[in-house]
UniProtKB/TrEMBL annotation:
<comment type="similarity">
    <text>Belongs to the CobT family.</text>
</comment>
<protein>
    <recommendedName>
        <fullName>Nicotinate-nucleotide--dimethylbenzimidazole phosphoribosyltransferase</fullName>
        <ecNumber>2.4.2.21</ecNumber>
    </recommendedName>
</protein>
<keyword id="KW-0169">Cobalamin biosynthesis</keyword>
<keyword id="KW-0328">Glycosyltransferase</keyword>
<dbReference type="Pfam" id="PF02277">
    <property type="entry name" value="DBI_PRT"/>
</dbReference>
<comment type="pathway">
    <text>Nucleoside biosynthesis; alpha-ribazole biosynthesis; alpha-ribazole from 5,6-dimethylbenzimidazole: step 1/2.</text>
</comment>
<dbReference type="InterPro" id="IPR003200">
    <property type="entry name" value="Nict_dMeBzImd_PRibTrfase"/>
</dbReference>
<dbReference type="GO" id="GO:0009236">
    <property type="term" value="P:cobalamin biosynthetic process"/>
</dbReference>
<dbReference type="InterPro" id="IPR023195">
    <property type="entry name" value="Nict_dMeBzImd_PRibTrfase_N"/>
</dbReference>
<comment type="function">
    <text>Catalyzes the synthesis of alpha-ribazole-5'-phosphate from nicotinate mononucleotide (NAMN) and 5,6-dimethylbenzimidazole (DMB).</text>
</comment>
<dbReference type="InterPro" id="IPR036087">
    <property type="entry name" value="Nict_dMeBzImd_PRibTrfase_sf"/>
</dbReference>
<keyword id="KW-0808">Transferase</keyword>
<feature type="active site" description="Proton acceptor">
    <location>
        <position position="317"/>
    </location>
</feature>
<dbReference type="InterPro" id="IPR017846">
    <property type="entry name" value="Nict_dMeBzImd_PRibTrfase_bact"/>
</dbReference>
<dbReference type="GO" id="GO:0008939">
    <property type="term" value="F:nicotinate-nucleotide-dimethylbenzimidazole phosphoribosyltransferase activity"/>
</dbReference>
Length: 352
């Protein structure tokens, strides 16, 4: 608990002065004020986060947190639990969608085993296993409060190491068969939304399975009685070791004044947990895409953020987050590379 407390204590508000300076610089560039829309908003936000008007995102690192879910035994997913392990090997062999998209934007990929059910042997894997999968949340708590804290602290340690090695933009992603169930459960607990609004098809279940998935979440809430104002209680009761891990990455990045990308439904659920632990965290989060999952846009509303992209994606892994890194880099290029109106005038006068 100490590391979590220390991390939260380090979190500060954005640098408003630097944001005003960024606004003034953007308004002085060779374009009508505000004409680059959300790119300008990102540039201003980056200045506030990093306290640097000319922030760069030239060391992008994407973190994929992998974990398994006891609730899979209820038939809430299309594929068996073993697919989590298979995909971890695929990430390590650079064959997954997130590897392809991360390569395109020049991001390194770090794979973390925070709770995969099997033992995976690889020098490339960061092993922070809290336990080999959560318990079935429909039958009782997914994990203990200590395990929930350990998952968050593992995420804090992972991101601290990356930032100490120079990372200046962090992506968040995950792999965990069954993990849309805890993610939708977290959103349901934190809102008055109906299960029709919070629960979706995940990997592609049919209508009958969707009905079952909603019943399982309803059962989980009745059995566990999570305290809606207590993020650690919510995380422990309905779980997601990778959700805790990502929340830790978000808190740790925030404490280090480093921007961090949100991905889809699961990363969104982690952001809600992090926000409940420390509301300032949302200032450091950069939205990416809107997932097909119905609950995702509701999460953005709770976070006070708007997705930049709507690509009909629902893969996870952080594919939306790495895609969004392209736009963050674009924002830094605007503020770093464009000429001011004054500079352009001088050049024009010289020429003729
Ligand atoms: O990111 C999303 O919005 C998203 C939406 C649907 C599915 N996923 C991915 O699919 C897996 C979870 O789906 P499910 O049906 O097993 O709960 C998990 O590995 C996620 O990465 C991810
Ligand atoms: C193949 C496959 C890849 C994934 N990546 C994230 N979730 C996934 C689920 C499946 C089934």
């Amino acid at each position: 608990m100490e590391l979590l407390k220390e991390t939260i204590a380090k979190i500060d508000s954005l640098d408003e002065k630097k944001m005003d300076e960024a606004q003034a610089r953007l308004d002085s560039l060779t374009k009508p004020p505000g004409s680059l829309g959300k790119l300008e908003e990102i540039a201003i936000k980056l200045a506030g986060i990093t306290e640097d008007l000319f922030a760069k995102v030239d060391q992008k690192v994407h973190v994929v947190m992998a974990g398994d879910h006891g609730v899979v035994e209820e038939g809430v997913s299309t594929v068996p639990q073993a697919v989590t392990t298979q995909m971890v090997y695929n990430f390590l062999n650079e064959g997954a969608a997130v590897n392809a998209l991360a390569n395109q934007v020049g991001a390194e990929v770090t794979i973390v085993d925070i709770g995969v059910a099997s033992e995976i042997e690889s020098e490339k894997l960061v092993v922070k296993k809290v336990k080999p999968g959560t318990n079935n949340l429909a039958k009782g708590p997914a994990m203990t409060k200590q395990e929930a804290i350990a998952s968050i602290e593992a995420g804090i340690e992972v991101v601290q190491d990356l930032i100490d090695n120079g990372a200046n933009l962090i992506g968040t992603g995950e792999m965990g068969i069954g993990n849309t169930t805890p993610s939708s459960a977290i959103l349901t607990i934190m809102t008055d939304l109906s299960l029709d609004e919070t629960v979706g098809y995940g990997t592609g279940i049919n209508d009958e399975q969707l009905k079952k998935k909603k019943e399982i979440i309803k059962e989980a809430l009745e059995v566990n009685q999570p305290q809606e104002d207590d993020a650690l209680d919510i995380l422990a009761k309905v779980g997601g070791l990778e959700i805790g891990g990502i929340a830790g990455v978000m808190l740790g990045a925030t404490a280090n004044q480093t921007p961090v990308m949100i991905d889809g439904l699961i990363s969104g659920a982690a952001a809600l947990i992090a926000q409940k632990l420390e509301p300032q965290v949302t200032n450091y989060l950069i939205p990416s895409h809107k997932s097909v999952e119905p609950g995702h846009i509701r999460m953005y509303e709770l976070l006070g953020l708007e997705p930049m992209l709507d690509m009909d994606m629902r893969l996870g892994e952080g594919t939306g987050a790495v895609l969004g890194m392209n736009l963050v880099e674009a924002a830094t290029r605007i503020i770093n590379d464009m000429a001011t109106l004054e500079e352009a005038e001088v050049e024009a006068n010289k020429a003729g």
